[in-house]
Amino acid sequence: MSNITEKIQEELKQARETCEVSGTGSKECAAAWDAVEELQAESSHQKQSKGKNSLEVYCDDNPDAAECRLYED
Predict the structure, then answer these.
(1) Does residue 60 fall inside a structural domain?
(2) CA–CA distance, 16 with 21 (Å, rounded to integer)
(3) Neighbour-count burial of 51, counting CB atoms closer than 10 A to its CB (0-12 exposed, 13-18 middle, 19+ buried)
């Protein structure tokens, strides 16, 4: 996770420099900030990914166990 955080910081710095040189209304500036937003979105998605809880792991290993039965209405 720290790798993507470092990459975001690098892209933020690059975006600021690009906008300073090219102007805030330039295509280059917009593209640089788009890259920052994409990395931030990826970081957010990675944080949302959750691992399985102990029951889910158990049921993956023992699908026929009573605790893992699924009943349909």
Answers:
(1) yes
(2) 9
(3) exposed
Per-residue pLDDT 10s for the chain (73 aa) are 578 889 999 999 999 999 999 998 999 999 999 999 999 999 888 887 677 889 999 999 999 999 999 888 7
How many structural domains comprise the chain?
1
Distance CA 64, CA 72 (A): 16
Q: What are the DSSP calls for 38-56, one per residue?
A: HHHHHHHHHHH-----HHH
Structural domain that includes position 40: 2-68
Is there a contact between 39 and 14 (Cβ–Cβ < 8 Å)? Answer: no
Task: Report if residue 73 sits inside a domain.
Answer: no
Question: Does 26 map to a domain?
Answer: yes
